[in-house]
Design brief:
19% helix, seven-stranded mixed sheet, alpha/beta, Purple Acid Phosphatase, chain A, domain 2, 8 helices
Length: 380
Amino acid sequence: MAGAAAMAVMAAAGCADGGQAIAHPTLTSGIQATPRTTPATAVSSSPAREPAVTGAAPVASDPGTLTLAFGGDVHFEDYLRPLASDPHGLDRLRSTLGAADLSMVNLETAITTRGTKIGKEFHFRAPATALDTLASAGVDAVSMANNHGVDYGPVGLRDTLAAKKASPIPIVGIGANEDEAFASATLKAKGVSVAVLSASQIYEMTLLNWSADSDSPGIASSAPVTRLVAAVKKAKRTHDVVVVFLHWGLDYQKCPDGQSTSTATALEAAGADVVVGGHSHRVNGAGWLGDAYVGYGLGNFVWWRSSEPDSRTGVLTLSVDVRRATAAKRPPGPVVRKAVWTPMLIGRDGIPEVASGADAPRLLGLWQQAGRCTGLATSP
């Protein structure tokens, strides 16, 4: 099955986390979920013009503020495999990621125990019980538009789509056809309807061979970006807040590449309120772009590499002004009024822990430093 027509001219290049990368080309009706409301406290900082080293994360119980939390890439490979069959294996994350009104991560694995590996270096898969583990940790939705979602071929993809239908939490970015892959899921909290959708722009064999088409299953591809822009516009018509979770950027980059910045600009113009994502295995910068909040790199999150810099990670918690978001005539300006980064380190068990001691200000400083090359504003 073919992806976007532009893929035909892509040239192969190396890709550190899975198979052959491809050079860049030129350039709803969804599941509904109702979240828990657990207070949040963490060592963190808001990216104000003069950021403090520590502070309190937004409290999820504040009726005037909707908190949205985001973590990076999650898989259940190797020594992480037992977590996928333990429904409480990631419950430690409830005090950080799960403390917000709504939270989301990128699930970077096929959901299957069958299938045949496709021709790439790294292959990730997990049983459907991994979705219960994530739900118990307080995750409200996951993206599967990434370069590992179809690691086990057509059989693995069929299992993944079956797991999606039975999942305790919405899965976006993958589907039986293009319409399903680009469809948004609806999350609701504090009277705010939030559309979440996702797509990948990592140019390797998954995007080339397994991009969802009009009559073919696969992942949502942002090549061309016009399809994702149309999906954002559609979601905007029926939701108060639109979140786009992207798999984007270049491996081990410190700053966003040109295609990431142009994609963020196009999605903000289409009406996206939040554009976040990852893939690069690094924490990249974040900030405001017009009416949207953009985070270019959330890093690894639940991951099998636990030494720095691969282990640097965190939870990004955004505070949405409920009154502004739900106003019949929304006032000008972004609905995200505050952003808090909780720096974390992935432990030897593959699970992130809040940074302590000297690591907390050090890692927070690195996150702030990463924002300097993004061109994003440090306040709304």
